[in-house]
Specification:
alpha+beta; 5 helices; single chain; 3-stranded antiparallel beta sheet
């Protein structure tokens, strides 16, 4: 899994204040938990940094997976060019996936095959929704 440090995101998204960056990371962290991501997408870490004369001190930092970086771009301010481009990329990719899925559906020849295809899609999405609700404490 690829991890990036928030400093890279901070520079890329043109965020001046580190506190704002950490606030920005809270939403993707909640989203990652809500959608039952079992990978460590956003991990709080302590990082040792030099402070002069060979001494070090621990500072709070965060490790970000590629998925976490995607969530950040999707939830960031689109007035920044790199964020707008990223959000456009995700919109285009989503549409491509919809087209692929529709092509797969249209290639089915019988009504029974189409019904089973749709039923399986609903089952998959209902399972994800139920798991997210359970993890959020909404459902038992």
């Amino acid at each position: 899994m690829n991890f990036g440090l928030p400093v890279i995101c901070q520079k890329s998204l043109n965020i001046q204040n580190t506190d704002i960056l950490f606030l920005l990371l809270k939403k993707p962290k909640k989203l990652a938990i809500a959608v039952v991501i079992k990978l460590k997408t956003i991990e709080d870490i302590l990082e040792m940094v030099g402070i002069g004369s060979g001494a070090e001190r621990a500072i709070e930092n965060i490790k970000l997976s590629r998925y976490a970086c995607y969530l950040i771009v999707q939830n960031a301010d689109p007035s920044t060019e790199v964020v707008a481009l990223g959000q456009t990329y995700f919109a285009v990719q989503t549409r491509f996936q919809e087209i692929r899925q529709m092509d797969e559906y249209n290639r089915l020849s019988t009504e029974d095959e189409k019904r089973i295809f749709l039923r399986n899609e609903i089952i998959k999405h209902n399972s994800l929704l139920a798991a997210a609700a359970k993890n959020a404490g909404v459902a038992g």
